[in-house]
Specification:
single chain; 470 residues; alpha/beta; 6-stranded parallel β-sheet; 4-stranded antiparallel β-sheet; 14 helices; 17 strands
Amino acid sequence: MDLRPENIQRVLSKYKFHDVVLEELQKIDRIYPGMIPSTAPYTCSDGIQKELLKLIGNLPVQFQGRSYNFPIQLWLLDSFPFSPPVCLLRPTANMVIREGKHVNPSGRIFLPGLQNWDYPKSSVVGLLNEMTAKFEEDPPLSSKPTGDNKDPHALLSYVSNLQLNDGASRYQDKPINKVTVIGGGDLGIASVMSILSKCKVNKLVFIDVAESSTKGGGTDLEIFSLPKVELSRDFSASAGSKVIVVTANTWSSEQSYVSLVQTNVDLYRGFIHHLARFSPGAIMIVASQPVDIMTHVAWRQSGLPPTQVIGAGCNLDSERLSHVLNIKLNTHQPAWVIGELSDNKVAVMSNIGLSSSVQPEIAPTSNSAKPLLDRAFEMTKNQGQRSWSVGLSIADITNSVLTDKNKCHSVSTLAKGWAGIGAEVFLSVPCVIGSNGSTRLAGVSLGQEEDSKLRESVTSLSNLMNQLRL
């Protein structure tokens, strides 16, 4: 491995652990001498560009008795080797990426060794060995088919690709509805069963978080082997998900409410950023408690746009309210419960009927409609938030994402700027939900009582967030 060129020496000198990096590169060269170093600009997640060292080479892989060379590149971040390399495939013009458990559509490679990187126990040599083993099980590249392609080896590779995908009826570009549920317990299992019943999914990954106090249920799912369900403890199994549902909770013996919530924040810190990295286009639905706070935490820790991180919030209450108005009170207009999932939540009504094809809007507070709305809202109280009912609500939101339904749900979302809210808080407000996430309905002037409850929640949530260590 030639490290003598001036540009390589210049970039290497800027690494925080220069001497250790040199030692690691020498180890790589001894085992994988074909890896070639070079330098290039690398764009970080915050948009800042840095000139970094990268390694380019071919990874030899055996599959079905034949040898393949998969082109890869490894970016060494300036904190390497105490942070893992960024690993990517480099498909040539006649290759296509096969999205799978360890590779996303853009060619980013995800492995347990990357997720659990812990130098000096972890090394690039070990990572490349793991990569070889995983790619021999599930090759990430195949030859690109063309109508006039006469090369029998390329055609064989293409046929093998179809067989790997469980039959020739599934093509590389066919969209896959993959959902991941994080966290066991009653709510996690209820979410799994409800999503399987309500939604058309190709795969549902269930990850039981060991540190969660709501763990459990995974063993039963394994025993009874449900179709389309994959059990894992590896967060990389979530790669390529369209929806990620987070139900994990953990409770400590701490007495104060802030300390209690902090245990959940600490739990999230261990996996939320991994989920976002493995599925950057996923819609994350949070159901951990307190849901408005934990949705806010998930947004901050994930780095995803606020439209992609929503909480189950008041969706269940809203569906119950609309049902009462429609069935019991014969008022065929959508209604939503908004605000914090607490005693301060309030009810609002749409200004159009259920059958209208026009996007609904929140109706301004009306003295004539308020008694009816209050009566319906009162009828929904004391029904509780049981695990199975919350699971059904989560499945309904999930279905709106997977089918791009553009249905209006009351979900916890970033409420700053809505109805005059100036603070950065997450509250349930009516949002149109589709494949790209959530879009809030326009805010309106609320009645004095409703507005007072909303402002009280904003203050309470802001104060709590300021006390948490994210």
